[in-house]
Write a structure and sequence with these properties.
This protein is an all-alpha fold. Among the domains are: 91 residues, Serine Threonine Protein Phosphatase 5, Tetratricopeptide repeat (Alpha Horseshoe); 96 residues, no CATH class. Helices cover 69% and strands 0% of the residues. It is elongated, with a radius of gyration of 23 Å.
């Protein structure tokens, strides 16, 4: 034991090795044992990826609906860049355990790596439905709201009277954004509100207010529109609206900015998910 009462590193490693040997013996005696996810997780701690993969494949053969087994296998598939297989496993895990917010978090990370930012945004919002204070999901939603709005429409261009139609004609995401927290609103209004929120986060209140009033003209006195108008009403006078001082940004610079945002987000997600996986093992 150390002075602070914690087990020494050597003792911890010995305990881990003994646990692995115990689980190996259990699975040898009973290949149908449900202990395979725990053994695979211990293998991954020791960077024994191939052994973990083999154990998971055998265990999932007998227990194809083991959510914990599928989630651990997903971690391996992501490191091997087998994204379609990982996506399929996460989809099945979520269907079996729809309240498992960690599965949504893992799939959001996967979608970021695949460049499917709208689907990543939807899953991060789903995480917040079950864990409203999750710091990574909150930051990711804020960043992806801006990133997806930049992809859908040129945020630096002037909005004409037809700006609502431009937003409404955006291509539908590969999967409906059923997780968007706008209540019973149409997909068209959800996309416009997401763009408005992105402008607000960038303190571009003039464009946010312009879109809100266009929304009100088209959709009427909707609660989501009215709440945003009330929040932004303090910026309605011209002197309070922050002007855009920067000039036009070239397309290459925009692409570089988006790439940097994505890389920073991916790095942050990998660190957080690693910490969460470590906590799960210790718990």
């Amino acid at each position: 034991m150390t002075q602070d009462g914690m087990p020494k590193k050597g003792n911890s490693e010995n305990l881990s090795t003994k646990k692995i040997e115990s689980l190996q013996a259990e699975l040898e005696n009973n290949p149908r044992s449900l202990a395979f996810p725990q053994l695979a997780d211990l293998y991954l701690e020791k960077e024994m990826t191939d052994e973990a993969y083999d154990v998971l494949q055998k265990g999932l053969h007998f227990h194809p609906n083991s959510v914990s087994g599928m989630l651990i296998l997903t971690r391996i598939l992501k490191t091997r860049n087998h994204f379609p297989e990982a996506e399929a496993l996460l989809g099945k895990s979520i269907r079996l355990a729809p309240q498992n917010w960690q599965a949504y978090l893992m799939r959001a990370d996967l979608y970021v790596r695949m460049g499917k930012h709208k689907l990543a945004l939807a899953d991060f919002k789903k995480v917040l439905m079950f864990n409203a204070t999750h710091p990574v999901a909150r930051k990711a939603v804020a960043k992806l709201e801006m990133l997806t709005s930049d992809e859908d429409i040129d945020a630096d261009s002037d909005f004409s009277a037809h700006s609502l139609n431009k937003v409404a004609k955006m291509p539908e995401p590969e999967k409906p954004l059923e997780t968007a927290p706008f209540g019973q609103t149409s997909p068209k209004l959800e996309r416009i509100l997401s763009l408005i929120d992105a402008f607000s986060m960038r303190q571009d209140y003039a464009k946010a207010l312009k879109l809100l009033y266009e929304c009100k003209n088209e959709f009427g006195a909707h609660s989501e529109i009215e709440s945003r108008l009330l929040k932004l009403s303090q910026y309605e006078t011209a002197e309070k609206i922050r002007p855009k001082v920067e000039g036009k940004i070239s397309e290459s610079k925009k692409a570089l900015i988006i790439e940097k945002k994505q890389k920073a987000l991916e790095l942050l997600l990998r660190r957080i998910i690693k910490l969460q996986n470590e906590r799960l093992v210790h718990n």
